[in-house]
Amino acid sequence: MGIWENMNKRVKKLSILDVKLAQGAAMFAALIVAKLIPQIMDISIWWFVVLLVVCIIKPFYVFYIKNVFLQKGGPVFCPKCRAEYRKGFTECADCKVPLVSELSPEPKTEYVYVDFEEVLATFNMGDIVIIKSILDSEKVPYFFKDEYSLQIRPVEPAKLMVRKDQVKKVKGILKEIKLNYMATTGGL
User: Fold this and answer.
1) DSSP code per residue over 54-118
2) Whole-structure pTM value
3) Between the CA of residue 107 and those of 85, 103, 104, what are the distances in Å?
4) 67 pLDDT above the threshold of 80
């Protein structure tokens, strides 16, 4: 890979702001050198013009000629994370997969309504922790309705809600556990 190809690859990863900041830094570095070495100002102005033209050719080529005139077309996309890139990029920086010119339509997500039923209610946070650990280990889908209201002011008990098709299984699991530390309802 030649020096120009390597430079092209690196510059493409920078935004226009990054490049302008780098150009500004180079300008300030030149001013510092001019201030520290006053004899440099004795050089003919035409040398500075030549250096200016040499320094401006590459950024102008990369950002204007190459991107606008040579590469017609729209943006490219990552098929995995669906990020958009300017034309000229070939690989997603995050996913490391080749970019495509068009994204396939997103698959339509079908949501299925699931009915939940109350299995028990409790005011005891200890009961809730035990029940959660048991149901998590059994991989049973559940949630506690009004669980966090117990931390503020326990007016309503926390209700264990389980899918209707899992109620018998959960009642069987919880029947073996003594949950009578405090008021517990549910007729297990």
Assistant:
1) HHHHHHHIIIIIIIIIIS-S--EE-TTT--EE-BTB-B-TTT--B-BSSPPPPPPPPP----EEE
2) 0.40
3) 22, 11, 9
4) no
Q: What is the mean pLDDT of residues 147-172?
A: 82
Token output for 183: 């008021």
Whole-angstrom distance, CA of residue 76 vs CA of residue 39: 51
Q: Is 169 helix (H, G, I), strand (E, B) or coil?
A: helix
Q: Tell me the three state secondary structure of residue 147.
A: coil
Per-residue pLDDT reduced to its tens digit, 81-109? 888 888 778 888 888 898 888 888 887 87
Q: Hey, how many other C-beta atoms are within 10 angstroms of the C-beta on 49? A: 10
CA separation for the pair 1, 154 (Å, rounded): 70
Report the C-alpha gap between 62 and 55 in whole angstroms: 12
Instruction: Please check whether residue 99 is in contact with residue 91, taking contact to mean a CB–CB distance below 8 angstroms.
Output: yes
pLDDT digits (tens, 9 = 90+) for 110-144: 877 778 899 888 888 888 888 899 899 988 889 88
Q: Which two tokens stand for residue 143?
A: 């949630």
| 9 within 8 A of 59, measured Cβ to Cβ | no
Region label for 139, one of left (φ > 0), alpha (ψ between -120 and 50) or beta (otherwise): left
CA gap 29, 34 in Å, rounded: 9
